[in-house]
Write a structure and sequence with these properties.
- This protein has 280 residues and is an alpha+beta fold.
- The protein folds into 4 domains: 3-79, no CATH class; 86-150, GMP Synthetase, Chain A, domain 3 (2-Layer Sandwich); 153-216, no CATH class; 229-276.
- The protein contains 8 helices and 13 strands.
- The protein has a 5-stranded antiparallel β-sheet with strand order 2-1-4-3-5, with no helix packed on it. A 5-stranded antiparallel β-sheet has the order 12-11-10-9-13, with no helix packed on it. A 3-stranded mixed β-sheet has the order 6-7-8, sandwiched between helices.
- A hairpin with a 5-residue loop joins strand 6 (105-111) and strand 7.
- The chain starts with a strand and ends with a strand.
Length: 280
């Protein structure tokens, strides 16, 4: 069968996956490869392997995988060694920032394959004129330097850490792309609207609020609002809904007894019929 071998490559942990074509290379998931990118050669990790036959039309022309990095080959690693390590580049960048008296926080430095291009990620409360800094860094690193300012979410993704759940941040461990999160999702899940409870390490709303939001929306559709008049299909009585349990799909209903008193009954939603819906 005629077609094209395609490999999905990620350049960062939990980063976006990019497709590349390859020929005459025996690849497995987990292999480190050298690929051609828009910014030059780069190294990444193979996370997906696929095949595209001739009948499938590709929307865009894919760039090739140049070669596979030999895991146990020290000579291969030496051939791509930079003049400085990522940590050393970060230290140099911090010294240069202090020299130029700029309000910037260096987050991470990354070098392209071969060390001819360096990307410096930083955060800042406002816009920064770093033109002189770029020239100074390029001279010190002997490479082309690109500075990228990132927001609070991307800063947390780069640095990593532990969330309020005790696990590693979703964004730095497996979440490849950020999705919109609203305070309405927290309300929909009956969470306390305390910033310390619903905010992540970035200070923004927790990404995990989106994981179960659709389930809560579906369950809420079957739940009678508090104050609604409902009747039991299995028992001969009606009453007013006082309290509801969304996940267990049960409600507490206030029922008037024949003696003129009232009692609270806990009933499953599936057993109830809505007589009058409350506007609450």
């Amino acid at each position: 069968m005629q077609g094209t071998n395609i490999a999905g490559v990620q350049f960062k942990r939990a980063g976006k996956i990019y497709d590349f074509i390859y020929k005459n290379i025996n690849l497995r998931i987990g292999d480190q490869v050298v690929v051609e990118t828009q910014k030059g050669l780069g190294t990444g990790k193979v996370v997906v392997i696929g095949f595209q036959d001739g009948e499938q039309s590709s929307q865009k022309e894919l760039k090739p995988i140049i070669k596979k990095v030999i895991k146990d080959g020290k000579n291969e690693k030496k051939s791509q060694d930079r003049k400085l390590s990522d940590e050393e580049m970060s230290d140099l960048a911090k010294k240069k920032i202090s020299k130029h008296k700029l309000k910037m926080k260096i987050l991470k430095c990354e070098s392209q394959y071969g060390g001819n291009r360096v990307t410096v990620y930083f955060s800042s409360p406002g816009r920064v004129d770093f033109r002189d800094l770029v020239k100074d860094l390029a001279s010190g690193l002997k490479a082309r330097v690109e500075l990228k300012q990132v927001g609070a979410r991307d800063e947390t993704k780069l640095l990593g850490g532990l969330g309020v759940c005790g696990r590693e941040y979703c964004c730095s461990s497996f979440l490849r792309e950020f999705v919109p999160v609203s305070i309405k999702m927290a309300k929909n899940q009956n969470l306390a609207l305390n910033p310390n409870k619903v905010s992540g390490g970035c200070g923004r709303l927790l990404c995990c609020l989106t994981y179960e939001n659709e389930t809560y929306k579906t369950l809420r559709k079957t739940l009678p609002p508090i104050g609604s008049l409902v009747a039991s299909r299995l028992q001969n009585f009606s009453g007013i809904v006082q309290k509801s349990d969304l996940l267990n799909q049960v409600v507490q209903v206030k029922v008037e007894t024949s003696e003129g008193n009232s009692e609270i009954k806990t009933l499953p939603v599936a057993e109830l019929t809505m007589l009058k819906k409350s506007n609450n």
